[in-house]
Amino acid sequence: MNNEQMKLDNQLCFRLYSAARLMMGAYHPYLDPLGITYPQYLVLLVLWEKDKQPVCDIGKRLLLDTNTMTPLLQRMEKAGLITRTRGEKDTRQRIVSLTQQGKALYEQAQNIPGNMRNALMMPAGEEEEILQMIPSLDKLIEELKKLNK
């Protein structure tokens, strides 16, 4: 039972899983004062780019299914960050909009990306190296989407 490909240290999936969990944890000191979770922050990022979007569009952008989106949005609505209304053309569709409170968080969240860069304290060259991984990760995500249909 000494197959190299079966060792944890040789698993790409474990590195991606670990990096994702640790990255989400690193956001806590910046999100906790705002009273939001990391998934809520992601929803807000999508809505700050373009307000008033259908639930399904937000879910597609975040790669989250309806069963995950619904409770997440319910908590955000209860917290006063968003509203959900019926679509005008299709009343089965739910449109998610920012409230004034949700819009106000944008100003408070402005420093989060810079704070995360500073918290990671990467030398300039290393930061660039990490940023160069984005296209490869995007390609990996696209391939994984195909497998998960």
Task: Please provide a written account of the structure.
This protein has helices at 12-31, 38-49, 55-62, 66-78, 100-109, 112-120, 124-131, 134-147; strands spanning 53-54, 82-86, 94-98. It has 149 residues and is mainly α. The chain has a domain at 33-106: Winged helix-like DNA-binding domain superfamily/Winged helix DNA-binding domain (Arc Repressor Mutant, subunit A, Orthogonal Bundle), CATH 1.10.10.10. A 3-stranded antiparallel beta sheet has the order 1-3-2. A hairpin with a 7-residue loop joins strand 2 (82-86) and strand 3. Helix 1 (12-31) packs across helix 6. The longest helix has 20 residues, at 12-31. The two termini are 33 Å apart.
What features would you highlight for this structure?
three-stranded antiparallel beta sheet, 149 residues, 8% strand, mainly alpha, Arc Repressor Mutant, subunit A, 8 helices, globular
On the 0 to 100 scale, the average pLDDT is 92
Give the number of DSSP strands.
Answer: 3
CATH topology of the domain at 33-106: Arc Repressor Mutant, subunit A
Query: What is the CATH class name of the domain at 33-106?
Result: Mainly Alpha
Low-confidence stretches: none
> Radius of gyration over alpha carbons?
18 Å
Biggest sheet record: 3 strands, antiparallel
The N- and C-terminal alpha carbons lie at a distance of 33 Å
CATH superfamily of the domain at 33-106: Winged helix-like DNA-binding domain superfamily/Winged helix DNA-binding domain
The succession of helices and strands, N to C, reads HHEHHEEHHHH
What CATH architecture of the domain at 33-106 would you give?
Answer: Orthogonal Bundle
**Tally of helical segments:** 8
Fraction of residues in helix:
55-70%
Please indicate the percent range of residues in DSSP E strands (runs of 2 or more): 5-15%
